[in-house]
Design brief:
The protein is of the alpha/beta class. It folds into two domains: 87 residues, Four Helix Bundle (Hemerythrin (Met), subunit A) (Up-down Bundle); 194 residues, 3-Layer(aba) Sandwich (Rossmann fold), CATH 3.40.50.300. Helices cover 53% and strands 14% of the residues. It contains twelve helices and eight strands. An eight-stranded mixed β-sheet has the order 3-2-4-1-5-6-7-8, sandwiched between helices. Helix 7 links the parallel strand 2 and strand 3. The protein starts with a helix and ends with a helix. The protein binds guanosine-5'-triphosphate (GTP) and magnesium ion (MG). The site of magnesium ion has 5 residues, from helix 6.
Amino acid sequence: MLGLFKKVRDGLAKTHDKLIGEIKRIVARAPRLDAESLDELEAALIGSDIGVETTMRIIEEVRKASAETREVDVVSIARRIISEALASQPAALRTAQQAPTVIVLLGVNGTGKTTSTAKLAHLLKQDGRSVLLAACDTFRAAAIEQLKIWGERTGCDVITGQYNSDSAAIAFDALDAAISRKCDFLLIDTAGRLHTKKNLMDEMAKLQRVLRKRLPDAPHETLLVLDASTGMNGLNQAREFHQAIGVSGLIVTKLDGTAKGGIVVAINRELKIPVKFIGVGEQVDDLQPFDATAFGDALFS
Ligand SMILES: Nc1nc2c(ncn2[C@@H]2O[C@H](COP(=O)(O)OP(=O)(O)OP(=O)(O)O)[C@@H](O)[C@H]2O)c(=O)[nH]1
Ligand SMILES: [Mg+2]
């Protein structure tokens, strides 16, 4: 457990430095927190990508506290409010009453869909579950081979089709295979294209429809994979995907490389879509189930 916590803390180091560093700098310079430093604090919080709603709540509480006492503990106020925002959504994976649980991973190009599919497979396998993978990115060159390699590494079979063929047909076949092989989980890797391209949304909607034809309550999770380093742009992507096809949860990747980890707070609070997993590195064991308490601790420790 300690090792896991360390990974999250190391992964969030840049976000921690930015958020806490800025708060401390402002408070050190103006401990009384006059109007000007409150403005500065507000700008710093917005700049850390935690979102407008959470920023406003922190500023409001800090303002109230500074009317009552001279030395306001801004860090602990921020910590409390951010922890509340983080814990506001359930983070556990939704599973099928009867196997297989079908999980679709989608998102724009390069966010980490394929690696997250592999990492999730690894997590589930470690938990003793059987996992089948479906290579439904028939769009990008070498995407199928990439998933096959991950399949070998994680010890999972991969259902594939031809490049440029219908991804929904592969998903259907894969679901058939998962049912007949009695697999616990089917993880479906999909193609990434710009979210402004309507055809990606159409492709994903079709994939969902086709899965439902075979298994009415599938997919049990539609997980949008977001690259944390895109910050507020990621929040917009999530909004658009959610409106177009419905997203049941998020995987926020590449937290290790960015100071924009505050985006996880904004997503939880403002979109009310739960963050289910976070990616904190490139290795197969660098995906972790999202734990609001651990995340808050890592952000402030
Ligand atoms: N540092 C870091 N790198 C990551 C993480 N997740 C994914 N990556 C890297 O991001 C790059 C893209 O990952 P992919 O999984 O191929 O992304 P994708 O969304 O499948 O990409 P397309 O299929 O081209 O749309 C790879 O180099 C991954 O190693 C993470 O949590 N941290
Ligand atoms: Mg991919």
